[in-house]
Amino acid sequence: MxxxxxxxxxxxASSATACDRCLHQSKASYFSKASALSSGACGYGSLxxxxxxGHLAAGVSSLFYNxxxxxxxxxxxxxxxxxxxxxxxxxxxxxxxxxxQTDFVLSSRAFTAMAQKGMxxxxxxxxxxxxxxxxxxxxxxxxxxxxxxxxxxxxxxxxAIKFLYxxxxxxxxxxxxxxxGSSNWSFLSRNHGAVWDTSRVPQxxxxxxxxxxxxxxxxxxxxxxxxxxxxxxxxIYDSDIQITEIAQEGCSPCNDETWS
Length: 260
Hints:
By secondary structure, the protein is mainly beta.
């Protein structure tokens, strides 16, 4: 039985305020093709093109967080009031941004979504803009957390899975797997991005335990029956659970207002 000692405890600094909407200032640029972001370090592939209407982003290492930040949602707005709206746009992190000159590289659809009506070409001509952004919960209406079996899986010796439609405002920091009805759990390791794998694959139908960041520490979620005994590569399976937890941290300033 695997035990995770990976609960995250966020201890706010004395000058910080308990917050789940920390406000950050930076810059953003864009990729002309969203496919450049969907095929990125998180490993979502073409599935990412359906996330948030194709409003995708590559984030710097502090946001990518060694893959734990994959699937995180952010509200981003540019600060040029002559061109941009006060609301900005909501993006999903799907890739790692290696250029530390900007916190984000957005898909062109997300980049132009920050602009006022009729100003799309003007913001594209700028190429790079000053922004402010904050982490926000991901919402997938009527969509549970899903598990996709990767093509690299080889029954019965190797299983690689990818988590899709991760709701809430969390990171997945640990995963266990066991045969349905068994308490003999084995842990999975993060292979890269949103992909987890193990060479200790239980037989039969499979259940999962997932540790997500929640509040100032972590929380176990139990998906009691996810993969059938005859699971197949390339197939997406419903976990029958939804992640709605919100992680807290310490920051200043905190911005919990609705941007509109």
